[in-house]
Amino acid sequence: SRPSRPAAHRRPGGRTGGELRPQPRHRQERDLVTFERAGWRFTKPTAQPFSLDGETKGGAPDTRQVFISESGDILIETDVATLQLNAAARTSRQMAEKILAADGLKILEELSFAPHVYVVQLPSGRSLPETIDALQAKTDRYVFVEPSMLQRISGRQDPTDPQFGWQWQHSDEVGLHSVAAWEITKGEGVRIAIIDNGMQIDHDELKLAIVGGGYFKKNGPGTATATFFRYQLGMSGFPVFGHGTFCMGMAGARDNNANGGCGIAPKSDLLAIACAIDQTGSQLTLARSIEFALNPKSVDPDGHLTLGADVISCSLSTANVVETVLEMAINSAASGRGGLGVPIFWAVNNFNTQISTDKLCSLPNVIAVGRSGPDGRPFSCGHGPKLEFLAPGRDVWGPSWGNNNIRWSGTSFATPLAAGVAALVLSRHPDWTAAQVLQHLRDTCDRSNGNVRDDLSGFGRINAFRAVQ
User: Fold this and answer.
1) Which residues contact 464 (CB under 8 A, 6 or more apart)?
2) What are the CA-CA distances from residue 257 to residues 98, 151, 159, 407, 413 (Å)?
3) C-alpha distances in angstroms, 454 versus 233, 330, 460?
4) Which of 103, 247, 347, 419 has the fewest Cβ atoms within 10 Å of its own Cβ atom?
5) 324-332 vs 283-294: helix axis angle to the nearest 10?
6) How far apart are alpha carbons 248 and 208 in whole angstroms?
7) Could you tell me how many helices (H) and strands (E) the chain has, helices first?
8) How are strands ordered across the β-sheet holding 40-43?
9) 3-state class (DSSP) for residue 14
10) Kind and range of the H or E run holding 117
11) How far, in Å, CA of 460 to CA of 469, rounded?
C-alpha cells in the first residue's frame, strides 16, 4: 500500500466530520464515511508527533497515518503487528520474548492456529513503513512481519427484496448507482413529501415509511375549496391511486422487507399528501398541499406534525395557466427548512415538446425532471433550457395499488427518484440550502456530452453515488 496525504485522528466521544476528502473513488469514499461514523476525523498532516498509544501530546488528539491500498481501500495504522518466527529462531516462549525484545517488540498474544505466531506491539520513534521494512529484512528471524491495520469490515449485500434485480433504475450502468450510494446513506432523517391524487397508505412497501400527511376533499360538487383530513395509521377512506403509490415507492419504498423492490431513499420518511382525489380540483387545493408539506401546522393546527418536508415531489399536471396562489405557494418553499429552502421537483410532460410551453415547469423555483430509458438516453419528455436533468422513467419497477409491484413508465416516476437522490444528499448535508442541493445534483450528473449541458438531457442523468460523495 502507499501512504496518502491525510492523517486521521480520533477523540473518543467527539463529534465527527471531515476536512479533507480522498479522490472521489467508490471504495475510498465508502471507507471514509464508515470511519467518520466510528469517530475518526481526516485532516491534513501536521508536524505534530504521532501518538500511537492512545494518549495525547500537548492536548493533541491521537493521530495516525492513513494509507490507501492499490484497490482504493483506506487503511489506518496502529502500533500492532503480527509475525512468525522462522525455524532458526523458534524456541520457547521465554526465548521468543528475548528475541523479540531485541527488536523493541513486546508480545501481546500468541496465536494458536500456526506455530510461533505472535501479536506484538511495535516500538515508537519511527514511521510504520520504516519499522516494518527493517523487521522484514531480518529473514534470519522472521517468516513474515505484517502491520495490523484498521479498515472497513462490513457485509457484502444487495437489498434482499425479491424483485430488486428487476429494478434497472438502481443499476450501475444506466441507473442511479444506488447500491454504492447506500453504503454511504439511505436517506436517514430526511422527509420527502409526495403530492398526488392518492396513494395506498397500507401498502407493504410504504406503510412503515409514512410518518404523516393527509388528503383534501372538496367541500361539495363544483367548489374550489376543500377540507383537509389528517393521515392516521390504519385509517380508512384515504384515496387510493396506483400513480401516487408508485411515485411514493420510487422515492422511499422500504428495503430488505422480503417484498417487491425498494426506493432510492429507503430509510427516508414519507409524507403522503393527496389532492384533487377525483382528478379534478383547483390550483388553490394544490397550493394548500404545498403549504402543508412546508408547514403542516398551518393547515392542520391540531395535528402531531411540527416539521415539514425537506424535499417535495409532484408529478401532477394542471391546466396550462398558473394561478398566482399556486406560484406563491411554490415560491414560499424558498423559506422552508428554517430558511434553507425546500427543493420542489416536478415532472415535465411525456412528449418531445419545449418546456417553455409548460408554464408550471417553467417557474423559476420548480426543478424540472425528465426521464431516461434503460439505454441511458433521454426518452420522450419535455426538453429545453429549463430541463435540469434526467432520472430513470421508462419501464421502471415499483409498488402499485393492491399491494402489487409492476413495471411502469413516465416522467412521473423519474421525478420522485430525483427527489429521493436529493434526500440522500440532505441526509449527508442537512445544512445545505436548496440551491446548493440543486447545484450539487447538476454537478454530479453523468453527461454523455462531456461537461456540456444540452437541452435534451439537461445536466445529464442523476447519479446517486456521485451525489452523496
Assistant:
1) 176, 177, 178, 180, 181, 264, 421, 424
2) 57, 29, 9, 19, 22
3) 45, 26, 8
4) 103
5) 10
6) 12
7) 11, 19
8) 17-18, 40-43, 2-10, 62-68, 74-76
9) coil
10) strand 117-121
11) 17
Angle at 322 between CA 316 and CA 323, to 5 degrees: 115
346: three-class secondary structure by DSSP: strand
Mention every residue, 6+ apart, whose C-beta is less than 8 A from residue 418.
313, 345, 367, 369, 389, 391, 441, 462
Say how many residues make up the chain.
469
CB-based burial of residue 131 (10 Å sphere; 0-12 exposed, 13-18 middle, 19+ buried)?
buried
Grid cell locating 298: 398551518
- Is the CB of residue 276 less than 8 Å from the CB of residue 316? yes
Burial string for 304-318 (b: 16+ CB within 10 Å, else e) reads ebeebbbbbbbbbeb
- Name which of 97, 293, 117 is nearest 214 in CA terms: 293
Q: Of 369, 467, 364, which is closest to residue 422 (Cα–Cα)?
A: 467
3-state SS, one letter per residue, for 203-272: CCCCCCCEEEEEEEEECCCCCCCEEEEECCCCCCCCCCCHHHHHHHHHHHCCCCCCCCCCCCCCCCEEEE
* Backbone dihedral region for residue 81 (phi beyond 0: left; psi -120 to 50: alpha; all else: beta): beta
User: Contact, 257 vs 204, CB < 8 A?
Assistant: yes
pLDDT in tens, the chain (469 residues): 233 334 554 433 332 333 333 333 567 777 887 788 778 888 876 645 444 444 444 555 678 899 998 878 889 999 999 999 987 666 678 888 988 999 999 999 999 898 899 999 999 989 999 999 999 999 989 999 999 999 887 765 567 778 888 899 999 889 999 998 998 899 999 999 999 999 999 999 999 999 999 999 999 988 999 999 999 999 999 999 999 999 999 999 999 888 889 999 999 999 999 999 999 999 999 999 999 999 999 999 999 999 999 999 999 999 999 999 999 999 999 999 999 999 999 999 999 999 999 999 999 999 999 999 999 999 999 999 999 999 999 999 999 988 899 999 999 999 999 999 999 999 999 999 999 999 999 999 998 777 789 999 999 999 999 999 8
Sheet with 106-111, side-by-side order of all strands: 106-111, 117-121, 80-85, 142-147
Distance CA 74, CA 31 (A): 6
C-alpha cell at 61: 488528539
Helix residue spans in 241-399 (DSSP H): 242-252, 283-294, 296-299, 324-332
Q: How many CB atoms lie within 10 A of CB 436?
A: 16
Per DSSP, 383 falls in state B
